[in-house]
Amino acid sequence: MPFPAVHPALDRALAARGYAEPTPVQAAVLEEGLSDQDLLVSAQTGSGKTVAFGLAAAPTLLPDSEAFGMADAPFALVIAPTRELAMQVSTELTWLYAETKAKIATCVGGTDARQEARKLNAGVHIVVGTPGRLKDHIDRGNLDLSAIRVIVLDEADEMLDMGFREDLEYILEQAPAERRTLLFSATIAREIAALAKRYQKDAVRIDTTDRTRAHADIEYRAMRIAPNEIEHAVVNVLRYFEAPGALVFCSTRESVKHLQAALRERGFSSVGLSGELSQRERTDALQALRDGHARVCVATDVAARGLDLPDLGLVLHAELPVNRATLLHRSGRTGRAGKKGVSVLLVPNPKRRRAEMLLSSAGVEATWEGAPTADAIRAQDDARLLAADIFSGETSDEDMALARKLLGERSADEMAVALVRMLRAKMPAPEDLTDPGDRPLRKERGDAATAWPTERLQAHEVTWFRASVGRQQNADPKWLIPLICRLGGVTKRDIGSIRVLPDETRFEISLEASEKFQAALGNAAKGEPVTITPSSAPDGAYKTKRAFTPRREEGGEDRPRSFDRKPGGKPPYAGKPNAAKPPYAGKKPFQGKPGGKPPFKGKPFKKAAK
Questions:
Q1: Which class for 91: exposed (0-12), middle (13-18), buried (19 or more C-beta within 10 A)?
Q2: Do 102 and 90 form a contact (C-beta atoms < 8 A)?
Q3: CB 180 within 8 A of CB 56
Q4: Which of 120, 168, 239, 539 is the most exposed place for a label (fewest CB within 10 A)?
């Protein structure tokens, strides 16, 4: 379907960019009769929203002319939640409005505010910025909204989540009441609907999202890993897929710094992206990924929304997202503009249940599997090597002459081996991983489901280990169990009895996990506060306990009373009924002791004289 009637200058810009037909959201905002209406639009990430609101604003900004005149107070204001998204929107609008001679200013935090102020005072047609910086320019008198014809709120739900409600309301109240307001949001929650009702006039609701399925161009995979092998799993996933561009998400800035440094040390061309970086550093990191100078970007959720990165074939969740919205927005960085992408979640076994609930709430069906092994990666390398582009390029006469000279001095086998070594030298080595296995989280017993095994591990099913802390070091299972799981790559279900002794702690590990547990301990980082080594069972670990006696109604005799548990033991009070008299027997309530007098000696309460 070709583009509907759009402004001629914008139509030429679309043709120059190779836009043959509109996306669903672009076609929806260009429908007849909407050129002067307020719009409330919800669309999936990667659906072309920036071009959509650029096209929708054109009839209002340029009703009767091909180009803008002399720049003075701005005609359009676009508000975005993050610096990266605002700068990306500014870039998109720059080429879309190039033939209209539009002057566009970007106002975001982390940049020189004085330089922005000079550009605003010199006159612009369109302003793109973040709420905080825009409000600051309004307060300082640098940004005049008196001539505004169109205001666009991009990713409005994210701006409310980030706490920009007051700034948004302040900006909207400064603009003329007769303006158009275009509100774009991934979801129309209650807060978004209230904002639209207050600041829009008879807005037309447009919904182009498909709630019956997740993004069709994204393949979701959930990979089981041991809790202490996240870093190694990231390496293997990046090596297995070898995507031209990959985005690895972490939860904190510290995690980003650590993982990005670890990947660079292993030979990956990587950059980091987090809120603590300056605007220049963040821009350079994204540009390196776009230009191909870096293949991996390790980022916090600051990169989860709005960023359009070409050739991004892989999104890797090194740490699980906090909610379904973050999962979908992170994953939405790939599989854009009709291209296919893969979203991989690394799931440590203790977090399996949380990952399943997260995928279910997002309406996503993921393939569960183990992380790629070193053997699987080497097999992929062999297949890629045989199909490498190096064999399909054009050959010059000079190259052919050199090749024949080499063949005269070296055998074909030597030449092939040298080529394999040269290509493999560019590839980081894969890591050896332990697959925790696809064990169910719940164990069924009858009609009930329990989170943990219903029967305790027996003596022949376990092996004992020793931890170098005890009661004197405040050892407690509450913090020992997570530590054991992290260092040994096991889950709670693999841990049996724990005995905290004065100077040490001994605990059981199931036999099926003991080999993996010892291997993980050998690979654990040095400097851990607790040392774990194999041990024997502590004294008295398997003392025989009194057998359980069923109740009479279950076919057995009555259970013994507490005072009958020792041989020859006597019950308290020697089995005699309690013959003690109640303390107030036959007495009035205020006479606690025999012969006692009532309080106040029975005198009535007298009112004070006036």
A1: middle
A2: no
A3: no
A4: 539
Backbone angles phi, psi at 479, to 5 degrees: -105, -15
Nearest to 154 by CA among 218, 81, 88: 81
> Which residues are registered as beta bridge partners of 469?
none
* 523 contacts: CB under 8 Å, gap ≥ 6: 228
- Beta strand pairing status for 76-79 and 150-153? parallel
| Token representation of residue 157 | 């739900």
Virtual torsion, Cα 544, 550, 551, 553, nearest 10 deg: 180
Whole-model pTM? 0.60
Q: Report how far residue 239's alpha carbon sits from residue 377's, in angstroms, rounded to the nearest whole number.
A: 7
Domains of the chain listed by start with CATH number: 8-207 (3.40.50.300), 218-378 (3.40.50.300), 445-534 (3.30.70.330)
pLDDT interval class at 63 (50, 70, 90): confident
Rg, Å, the chain Cα set: 35
Residue 148 has pLDDT above 90, yes or no: yes
The three-class DSSP label of residue 242 is: coil
Could you tell me if 119 and 149 are in contact, meaning their C-beta atoms sit under 8 angstroms apart?
A: no
Which amino acid, one-letter code, is at 521?
L
Please report the beta strands in 154-305, taking only residues with DSSP state E, as ranges in sequence order.
180-185, 204-207, 218-225, 245-249, 270-273, 296-299
DSSP 4-47: -S--HHHHHHHHHTT--S--HHHHHHTSTT-TTS-EEEE--TTS
Residues 505 and 466: beta-carbon distance below 8 Å: yes
- Burial (0-12, 13-18, 19+ Cβ within 10 Å), 351: middle
Q: What is the mean pLDDT of the chain?
A: 80
Distance, in Å, from the CA atom of 272 to the CA atom of 298, rounded to the nearest integer, reads 5
Q: How many helical (H) and strand (E) elements, i.e. helices and strands, does the chain have?
A: 19, 20
Say if CB 224 and CB 275 are below 8 A apart: no
296, 268 in Cβ contact below 8 A? yes
What's 124's DSSP letter? B
Count other Cβ atoms within 10 Å, centred on residue 65: 11
For CA atoms 231, 236, 239, 240, give the dihedral sign.
Answer: negative
Query: Is 497 within 8 Å of 236 (Cβ atoms)?
Result: no
Both tokens assigned to 528: 């851990």
Residue 58: which of 16, 29, 19 has the closest Cα? 29
What is the SS3 assignment for 476?
Answer: coil
Helix pair 397-409, 412-424: axis angle to 10 deg:
120
310 or 130, greater pLDDT:
130
Question: 282-291, 320-329, 406-415, 592-601: which range is least confident on average?
Answer: 592-601
* Amino acid (one-letter) located at 590: F
Phi and psi at residue 462, in whole multiples of 5°? -135, 165
Q: How far is CA 378 from CA 241, 282, 383, 419, in A?
A: 12, 34, 9, 16
Dihedral over alpha carbons 193, 196, 197, 199 (to 10 degrees)? 160
For the chain, the residue count is 610
CA 222 to chain CA centroid, nearest Å: 13
User: CA 589, 590, 591, 592 torsion: positive or negative?
Assistant: positive
Q: Which two tokens stand for residue 175?
A: 């603009």
